[in-house]
C-alpha cells in the first residue's frame, strides 16, 4: 500500500527571485495531485500564505470546481527560517493560533533589525518557537547539525524533526541514510520533504532565469547554479514513495504532522482599535458625535429624512460592532483639520450619513441617492472601507501622527506587490539571456506604459530583430512567463492597518524603504480576504492646490473659503466648462473629458457627478455613453423599462452609470437579495477572468424574465452591469470627486492667476506639465513673469500690477535641480536687491554650481545681464564659497573681470536654453520658430474654422493615451504656438507608425479633420517624426561659453542637458510628454 504524503516545504515566487510558481498555482496543482496537505514555507516570510489561503477558499466556493472539492488539500501556514549563525535551515509550522502569533512576532523581530527586504535572525531567536513544528534541513556537512538539532529537541520535545530533501544528483539514497542516522542520534524523526520550487516541470527555465537575476549573472555563466533537472516540482505521492522507498515512515510522518496542526489562516481575528475616551463606550461616543455633527452640518434642525437615515445606520453599526472603526477615521480626520490639512473622504463612504455628520465626507445627502448597503451590509459582515484623501504635500504629517498615536506595534502600512511588467521583464530577462542593452532598450521602448502585454513577432521586426532566432524566441517565451511574477514588496500608497492589540501578531512587520515607515507583508487584497480593517490615508495633489489657492485668496483679501463655502451653482463656471476650458481642472482635464464637456454641457452640480463617472471604462464598455448623450440632447427618449427600473435610473436618463444603480437593478429587476446583488458586483471581474461569466448572466436574465421583463431588456441590463467589472464609479465616489471638480473650476474661472500659481506650486500632479499650465494662464490674460534673482521666491508667487490685476512670478522651484534651501538663502540675503553675480555670491553664500543654474535659467536678466554674461561671471569665480570675514563686495577677491565681448544668442537658442533649465519658455513656442521651415501646416487654433477635409498639423507631443477600453486606439495631443489638436491613431495605423507614436516629440500628422460642435479631431493617416528639427533650434549654452573660455581656465562643469547624440534622443529629454494608459 502506497503511504500518503503531504508536502511540507514549498517555496513560492513570494520568495523573490527563487520560487518559480505562484501560490495559487501550487494550490491548484496540489488539488490535481490529490495531496492531503501542503505547507507554504517562503524564506523568512509569510508574504505568500494569504494568496494560497485565498486561492483554496475560492476553489472551495467555486461550483465549477465541485468535482475537485473532495481532494482539496489542507493548507499549512509556515516559513523557512534562514539563520545568520547556523547552516541549518528550519521549516517552522505553528500548530495553533497562539503559536502563529509567536511566529509572526519572531519574524517581525528579525525584519525590524534589518533594512527593507531582509531578516536577521539567530539560533537564540529560535528558542521562542514554542508549539511549532520544527523541521531541520541539514547542510551537506552534517558535522555541526547533530548538536543543534538535539539541543532543539531537548527544548521542544516531540516538535523537532530532521528533514530529508532529495538532491536529484544520483546520491539520494545515501543522503537519506545519513539523514536517518542523524535523526536517530538526535531523537528528531526523519521527515520527507520535496524542497519544491515550481508547480510543474515546465517552469525549470524560469527558475534558472530567476537564479541569474538573483546572482547577477547571465544564463551562459550559470554553471552549477542551474537546476540539474526539473525534479524540484510539486510531486504526487507515487513519485515521492519511489524516492523514499527505503524510508516509508518519513512519508507517513508528513501526514501525521499535518494532522497535528489545527491552525488555519481564517482563524485570525481582527480587533478594531478602541481608544478609551473617559470611559465612554465606542457606540455611545459615535452616536453623540454623529448627532451633534448632523445638527452642525444641517445648520440647525436636521430634516426628518436625515434623522431617519442616521438612526438606521447607527443601528446597523451597533449590531456589527463597527463604531471603533468610524471613531478611528474620525480621529484621523479631526487631527488633519486641526493642523489645517485639507482632506476629504471619498468612495463608498459618501453613501454614509454618519461619515457626512462626522465631517469625513463632504457630499450632502440630498445630492445623491444614498445606498448604505453599498458601504456596509448586515449580510456581508465585512469591514467597511473609508478612503480619505489628504493634501499630497502634507500627508506624511498625518501618517506620522498615526504612528505616534497608535504606536508601531499596532499600526502599519499595507504592502503593495511590485510585479514584473513587460518593460521590466524585457530588460531583466533580456540581460540574463545575453541580449545587448540596445536590443532590450529598443524592445522595451515599444511597450506602452506599464503594460502587462507580452511581445510578438511584429514588435521584434519593428526594431530590426528576427523573431525566428532561437535565443531570441527563448527569451520572448521566458519574458511571457515571468510577466506577473512578484519582484518585491513595496508600501501601499496609504492603506493603514490599525489594531487594538499587537499588529505583529497578525502579520510580520518590516521596515519600509522610506525612513520612519513600517509595513506589513500582506497587500490590500490579502487583508480584504481575511477581513482585516484598512484605513486608506491617501494623497491628492488637487487638495494641495486648492488649499494653497484658498490661502492666496485670503492673503489677497479676496475672502476666506473652505470646500463647502465656495459659491455654488455659479453660471460662469459652468459656461467655462461647456467650452472645454478645463486645463488643470480636477478630473475633467483629460482629452476624453474635455471632448465630452461640450456635448454634456454641464449646468448644475449633478451634471458634474455624471461627467466624472461617465468617461470611465465601465460605462464605456457597457455602451452607456452614446445613449445618455442622445437623451440629454433630446434626440431620443429613455426606453420604457417599467416604473420600477425607471425610478432607479431617472436621474441618469434611463442609463445605469453608477455601481449603486447596478445593485438596485439586480435587486428590483432580477430579484436578487441585497447580499447576492453585492456579491454579483464584487465578483464580476474575477468571474470574467475565470471564464464563468455566462453562468451569472443566465441567472440574472432568468430572474428578470421571471419578473416580467423581455429577454432583450434583461440581456441589455446585464451587459451594462457587466461593464462595471471594468471599473465603474459608485455615485458617492463620483460626487466626492465632483465637489473638487467644481471648486477647482470655480477657482480657474474667477481667479486664473491664483489657480495657475497654486497648480504650479503643487507639482507634480495632474495631466499637464508646467509649460502647458503657463501657456493656459497666459491665454487667460494672466501676465507671467520670469524667474528673477531679485523677485522670485522658492514658490511661484503673485505680484500686483499697476492696473490692480495679479501677475504670476515664476519661482526657483521651476529650475531643474534647484534646491529649496538655496532659494531660501537667496531670499533672506536679498535686502534691496542684488546688483550682479558677485553680490549674490558674497551675500547669499551659495555655491558657484547654484549660481550657474541661475544663469542658465536667465535669472539675472533684470540686472541687464544676458545668459552668457551671467554664466561668464559665474565661471570666473574661483572659490567654492565666500569667506564670511572677508566678504567685502568691493574687493573683487575671487572674481576675474570678463575680458571678451560675448555674442548675443538668437531666439532659437534662448528657447532651447529655457527648456533645458525650466522645461518651459516665455519667449516663444518652438513651433513658432520652426513653422517657416515646415510649410503647409494648419495652425491648431484654426481647426474650428477650416473646412472638413484632409489637413496636416504639427506640434509638440504633450500627452499620449492608450486607454484599455479603446481597442488599441492611441490618442495624441499636439501643441503648437496657437493651441492644441487632438489626434486619433487607429490600431492598424499605430502598428505601422509605432516608432513615431511612441518616440516622437515633434510630430507632423496628416489626416482627416472631424468636428462635432466645438470638439475637433484629426483622424491620422500618416505620421512623421520631426524631432530632429528641435535640435536645430540652438546649441547648449555651456558649449558656447566653454568655447570662449581660454584653455587655461577651468573646464566647463557638467550640467543637466541632453547627452544623447541623436537629435531624437535630445528632443525626448528637452520636450518630454506625459503618457497615460
UniProtKB/TrEMBL annotation:
Biased composition (Basic and acidic residues): 1062-1077
Gene3D superfamilies associated with the record: 1.10.150.870, Metal-dependent hydrolases (3.20.20.140), Nucleic acid-binding proteins (2.40.50.140)
Domain DNA polymerase III alpha subunit finger: residue ranges: 542-708
Name of this chain's protein: Error-prone DNA polymerase
GO biological process: DNA repair; DNA replication
Limits of the PHP domain: 12-138
Family, similarity comment: Belongs to the DNA polymerase type-C family. DnaE2 subfamily.
Ranges where the OB domain occurs: 951-1026
Record-annotated DNA polymerase helix-hairpin-helix motif domain positions: 781-869
One GO MF term: DNA-directed DNA polymerase activity
Annotated Bacterial DNA polymerase III alpha subunit NTPase domain residues: 286-538
Subcellular location: Cytoplasm
Reactions catalysed according to its record: DNA(n) + a 2'-deoxyribonucleoside 5'-triphosphate = DNA(n+1) + diphosphate
Organism: Ketogulonicigenium vulgare (strain WSH-001)
Amino acid at each position: 500500500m502506497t503511504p500518503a504524503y503531504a508536502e511540507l516545504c514549498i517555496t513560492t515566487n513570494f520568495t523573490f527571485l527563487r520560487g518559480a510558481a505562484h501560490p495559487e498555482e501550487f494550490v491548484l496543482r496540489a488539488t490535481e495531485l490529490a495531496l492531503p496537505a501542503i505547507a507554504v514555507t517562503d524564506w523568512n516570510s509569510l508574504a505568500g500564505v494569504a494568496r494560497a489561503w485565498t486561492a483554496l477558499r475560492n476553489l472551495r466556493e467555486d461550483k465549477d470546481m465541485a468535482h475537485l472539492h473532495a481532494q482539496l488539500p489542507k493548507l499549512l501556514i509556515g516559513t523557512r527560517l534562514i539563520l545568520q549563525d547556523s547552516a541549518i535551515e528550519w521549516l517552522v509550522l505553528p500548530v495553533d493560533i497562539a503559536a502563529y502569533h509567536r511566529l509572526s512576532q519572531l519574524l517581525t523581530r528579525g525584519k525590524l533589525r534589518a533594512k527593507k527586504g531582509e531578516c536577521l535572525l539567530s539560533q537564540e531567536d529560535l528558542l521562542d518557537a514554542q508549539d511549532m513544528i520544527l523541521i531541520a534541513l541539514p547542510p551537506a556537512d552534517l558535522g555541526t547539525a547533530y548538536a543543534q538539532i538535539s539541543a532543539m529537541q531537548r527544548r521542544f520535545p516531540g516538535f523537532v524533526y530532521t528533514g530529508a530533501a532529495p538532491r536529484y544528483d544520483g546520491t539520494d539514497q545515501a543522503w537519506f541514510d545519513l539523514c536517518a542516522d542523524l535523526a536517530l542520534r538526535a531523537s528528531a524523526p526523519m521527515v520527507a520533504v520535496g524542497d519544491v520550487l515550481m508547480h510543474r516541470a515546465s517552469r525549470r527555465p524560469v527558475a534558472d532565469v530567476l537564479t541569474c537575476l538573483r546572482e547577477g549573472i547571465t544564463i551562459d555563466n550559470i554553471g552549477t547554479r542551474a537546476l540539474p533537472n526539473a525534479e524540484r516540482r510539486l510531486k504526487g505521492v507515487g513519485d515521492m514513495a519511489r524516492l523514499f522507498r527505503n524510508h516509508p515512515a518519513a512519508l507517513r510522518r508528513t501526514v501525521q504532522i499535518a494532522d497535528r496542526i489545527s491552525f488555519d489562516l481564517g482563524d485570525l481575528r481582527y480587533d478594531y482599535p478602541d481608544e478609551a475616551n473617559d470611559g465612554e463606550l465606542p457606540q455611545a461616543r459615535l452616536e453623540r458625535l454623529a448627532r451633534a455633527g448632523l445638527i452642525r452640518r444641517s445648520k440647525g434642525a436636521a430634516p426628518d429624512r436625515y434623522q431617519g437615515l442616521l438612526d438606521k445606520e447607527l443601528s446597523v453599526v451597533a449590531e456589527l460592532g463597527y463604531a471603533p472603526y468610524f471613531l478611528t477615521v474620525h480621529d484621523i480626520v479631526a487631527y488633519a483639520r486641526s493642523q489645517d490639512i485639507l482632506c476629504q473622504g471619498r468612495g463608498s463612504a459618501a453613501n454614509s450619513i454618519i461619515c457626512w455628520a462626522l465631517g469625513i465626507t463632504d457630499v450632502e445627502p440630498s445630492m445623491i441617492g444614498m445606498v448604505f448597503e453599498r458601504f456596509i451590509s448586515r449580510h456581508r459582515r465585512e469591514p467597511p472601507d473609508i478612503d480619505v484623501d489628504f493634501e499630497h504635500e502634507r500627508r506624511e504629517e498625518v501618517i506620522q501622527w498615526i504612528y505616534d498615536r497608535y504606536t508601531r506595534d499596532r499600526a502599519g502600512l499595507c504592502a503593495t506587490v511590485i510585479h514584473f511588467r513587460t518593460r521590466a521583464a524585457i530588460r531583466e530577462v533580456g540581460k540574463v539571456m545575453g541580449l545587448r542593452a540596445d536590443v532590450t532598450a529598443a524592445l522595451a521602448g515599444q511597450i506602452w506604459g506599464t503594460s502587462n502585454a507580452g511581445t510578438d513577432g511584429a514588435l521584434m521586426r519593428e526594431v530590426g530583430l528576427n523573431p525566428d532566432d532561437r535565443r531570441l524566441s527563448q527569451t520572448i517565451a521566458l519574458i511571457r512567463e515571468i510577466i506577473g511574477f512578484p519582484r518585491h514588496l513595496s508600501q501601499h500608497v496609504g492603506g493603514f492597518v490599525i489594531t487594538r492589540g499587537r499588529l505583529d501578531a497578525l502579520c510580520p512587520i518590516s521596515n519600509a524603504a522610506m525612513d520612519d515607515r513600517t509595513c506589513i507583508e500582506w497587500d490590500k487584497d490579502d487583508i480584504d480576504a481575511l477581513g482585516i480593517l484598512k484605513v486608506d490615508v491617501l494623497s491628492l495633489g488637487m487638495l494641495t492646490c486648492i488649499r494653497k489657492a484658498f490661502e492666496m485668496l485670503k492673503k489677497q483679501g479676496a475672502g476666506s473659503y473652505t470646500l463647502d463655502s465656495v459659491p455654488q451653482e455659479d453660471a460662469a463656471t459652468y459656461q467655462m466648462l461647456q467650452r472645454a476650458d478645463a486645463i488643470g481642472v480636477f478630473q475633467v482635464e483629460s482629452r476624453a473629458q474635455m471632448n465630452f464637456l461640450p456635448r454634456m454641457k454641464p449646468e448644475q452640480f449633478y451634471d458634474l457627478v455624471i461627467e466624472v463617472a461617465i468617461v470611465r471604462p465601465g460605462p464605456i464598455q457597457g455602451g452607456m455613453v452614446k445613449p445618455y448623450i442622445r437623451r440629454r440632447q433630446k434626440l431620443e427618449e429613455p426606453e420604457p423599462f417599467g416604473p420600477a427600473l425607471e425610478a432607479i435610473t431617472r436621474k441618469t436618463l434611463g442609463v445605469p452609470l453608477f455601481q449603486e444603480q447596478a445593485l438596485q437593478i439586480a435587486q428590483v429587476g432580477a430579484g436578487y437579495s441585497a447580499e447576492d446583488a453585492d456579491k454579483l458586483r464584487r465578483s464580476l471581474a474575477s468571474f470574467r477572468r475565470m471564464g464563468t461569466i455566462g453562468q451569472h448572466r443566465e441567472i440574472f436574465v432568468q430572474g428578470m424574465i421571471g419578473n416580467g421583463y423581455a429577454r432583450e431588456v434583461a440581456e441589455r441590463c446585464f451587459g451594462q452591469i457587466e461593464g462595471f467589472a471594468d471599473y465603474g464609479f459608485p455615485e458617492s465616489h463620483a460626487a466626492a470627486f465632483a465637489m473638487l471638480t467644481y471648486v477647482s473650476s470655480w477657482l480657474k474661472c474667477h481667479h486664473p492667476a491664483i489657480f495657475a500659481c497654486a497648480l504650479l506650486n503643487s507639482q507634480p500632479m495632474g495631466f499637464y506639465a508646467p509649460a502647458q499650465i503657463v501657456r493656459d494662464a497666459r491665454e487667460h490674460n494672466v501676465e507671467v513673469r520670469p524667474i528673477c534673482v531679485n523677485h522670485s521666491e522658492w514658490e511661484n508667487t503673485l505680484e500686483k500690477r499697476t492696473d490692480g490685476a495679479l501677475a504670476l512670478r515664476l519661482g526657483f522651484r521651476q529650475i531643474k535641480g534647484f534646491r529649496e534651501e538655496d532659494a531660501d538663502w537667496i531670499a533672506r540675503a536679498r535686502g534691496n536687491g542684488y546688483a550682479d553675480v558677485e553680490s549674490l555670491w558674497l551675500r547669499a553664500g551659495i555655491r558657484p554650481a547654484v549660481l550657474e543654474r541661475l544663469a542658465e535659467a536667465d535669472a539675472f536678466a533684470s540686472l541687464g545681464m544676458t545668459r552668457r554674461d551671467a554664466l561668464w561671471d559665474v565661471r570666473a569665480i574661483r572659490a567654492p564659497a565666500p569667506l564670511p570675514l572677508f566678504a567685502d563686495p568691493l574687493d573683487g577677491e575671487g572674481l576675474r573681470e570678463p575680458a571678451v565681448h560675448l555674442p548675443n544668442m538668437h531666439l532659437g537658442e534662448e528657447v532651447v536654453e529655457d527648456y533645458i533649465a525650466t522645461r518651459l519658455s516665455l519667449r516663444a513656442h518652438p513651433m513658432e520658430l520652426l513653422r517657416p521651415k515646415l510649410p503647409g501646416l494648419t495652425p491648431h487654433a484654426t481647426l474650428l474654422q477650416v473646412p472638413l477635409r484632409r489637413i496636416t498639423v504639427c506640434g509638440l507631443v504633450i500627452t499620449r493615451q492608450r486607454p484599455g477600453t479603446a481597442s488599441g486606439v492611441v490618442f495624441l495631443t499636439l501643441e503648437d504656438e496657437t493651441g492644441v489638436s487632438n489626434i486619433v491613431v487607429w490600431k492598424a495605423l499605430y502598428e505601422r507608425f509605432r516608432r513615431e507614436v511612441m518616440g516622437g516629440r515633434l510630430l507632423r500628422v496628416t489626416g482627416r479633420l472631424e468636428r462635432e460642435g466645438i470638439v475637433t479631431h484629426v483622424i491620422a493617416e500618416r505620421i512623421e517624426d520631426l524631432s530632429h528639427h528641435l535640435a536645430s533650434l540652438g546649441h547648449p549654452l555651456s558649449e558656447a561659453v566653454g568655447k570662449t573660455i581660454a584653455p587655461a581656465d577651468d573646464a566647463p562643469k557638467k550640467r543637466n542637458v541632453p547627452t544623447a547624440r541623436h537629435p531624437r534622443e535630445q528632443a525626448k529629454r528637452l520636450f518630454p510628454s506625459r503618457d497615460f494608459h
